[in-house]
Amino acid sequence: MTESYTPPKVWSWEKENGGAWASLNRPIAGATHDKELPVGDHPLQLYSMGTPNGVKVTILLEELLEKGISEAEYDAWLISIGDGDQFGSGFVELNPNSKIPALNDRSGDKPVRVFESAAILMYLAEKFGEFQGAPEKRAELLSWVMWQMGSAPYLGGGFGHFYAYAPYPMEYPIDRFAMEVKRQMDVLDRHLAENQFMLGDDYTIADMAIFPWYGRTAKGQSYDAGEFLSVHEYKNVIRWADEIDARPAVKRGKLVNLSGEGKLPNRHSAADFDGLV
């Protein structure tokens, strides 16, 4: 442990310095092993894990099915990032960035790969013509979706890493990222004081993008840091999160691609939820 650090002229990779994820993080891309991806019966094949980024997509797919859109039926396959599944050759071919989630749409003449969670949300919303809000609010929709994509790294990779996963506690980065997370929560709280959802009365992919990250934070479920971040202050975010959390499709989506009792590692049909929700 050291309190000061002088960067060398040329950085070099030291595997043991990565904290809790040291065995997985690396400064190069590409596959580490050969492993083909499984393929189910439905045109939509999702390869993911039930992290906040993964949950965004399963919530949208379940919401589409809740609306009776049978074409949104999907197979969801667990990619265990702790085991390094994201570095298998089949997954890297689908997503060269080796991050979940990744979608393969086989409904057309040629498969379409989509990676990055927001891109998948936008692709599916446009494909099925749902959860996009009114046309005149298109700019607002894009703004909030991009806000989430730009903001969440401060919550996860910034605050979450240094608060929960770093090799030892460091005051400066924890203070820096805690301040930013609280600022972001205040942005949401002020907006939701005047809006039921992110686009007013319309429940959209903007809510689905933001909820898995900031809804759980408002409920004290992110990194066991609820008291530290005083999340009880953000009453409008809590109200919004509770309303979304109560939706049947959200309840189902939150179970997909997770291991453990009451969870659904792989999802292939609505019947898979029997006895779970």
The CATH architecture of the largest domain can be given as: Up-down Bundle
What is the CA–CA distance across the termini? 46 Å
Number of strands: 4
Helix content: 40-55%
Mean pLDDT comes to 95
Net shape:
globular
Q: Numbering strands along the chain, what is their spatial order in the largest sheet?
A: 2-1-3-4
Domains, number: 2
Please write the string of helix (H) and strand (E) elements: EHEHEEHHHHHHH
Strand content: 5-15%
Q: How many individual helices?
A: 9
The first-level CATH class name of the largest domain: Mainly Alpha
Q: Which stretches are poorly predicted, pLDDT < 50 over at least 5 residues? A: none
Which class of secondary structure composition applies to the elements? alpha+beta
Q: State the CATH topology of the largest domain.
A: Glutathione S-transferase Yfyf (Class Pi), Chain A, domain 2
Biggest sheet statistics: 4 strands, mixed
How large, in whole angstroms, is the Cα Rg? 19 Å
